[in-house]
Amino acid sequence: MSPMDIAEVAKITGLSSSTLRFYEARGLIQSVGRKGLRRLFHADVLDRLALISLGRGTGLSLDEIGRMFTPEGPVIDRDLLLAKADELDRKIKELTTMRDGLRHAAVCRAPSHFECPKFQRLLTLAKKNHFRPTSDLQRAHKQKSKPGALKTTD
Fold first, then answer.
1. In CATH, what number is assigned to the domain containing residue 9?
2. Within a domain: 150
């Protein structure tokens, strides 16, 4: 199969060309040349992009995903996968608790939600999670805002 240009890869994957260029700059994918100004990719880039998508969907950072790609092919860190599965279990439990609390709050007969013990537990959970970074972007922002951190322009 002949190489695909970046527009074809973007159309097939639903990713923007800028995302593909970003992934290439991070070393997650590699172009095999150019056709004019357009990058060209082998068809196997689709498998890599699927792994990246799967990893991102489970909460892996791009650095964690990148460490799995070696010159010999993907090497899956099973301990990392187990840790992420445990993290997802905790998140599912938290989300289930919040869902149940919202459903209760919608039908609660207390004069005020602030008088309802179930709603109070929901607020406590929300307070607990409010300051916990949940994404790479939030972690990067938190790191950037620490005293002594390198300042960059956006």
1. 1.10.1660.10
2. no
DSSP for 7-55, please give it.
Answer: HHHHHHH---HHHHHHHHHTTSS---EEETTEEEE-TTHHHHHHHHHHH
Beta bridge partners of 70: 73
> How many domains does the chain contain in total?
2
Domain that holds residue 97: 88-132
Cut 0.85: pTM above it: no
- Nearest to residue 9, comparing CAs of 51, 47, 56, 41? 41
pLDDT digits (tens, 9 = 90+) for 58-98: 999 999 999 998 888 889 899 999 999 999 999 999 889 88
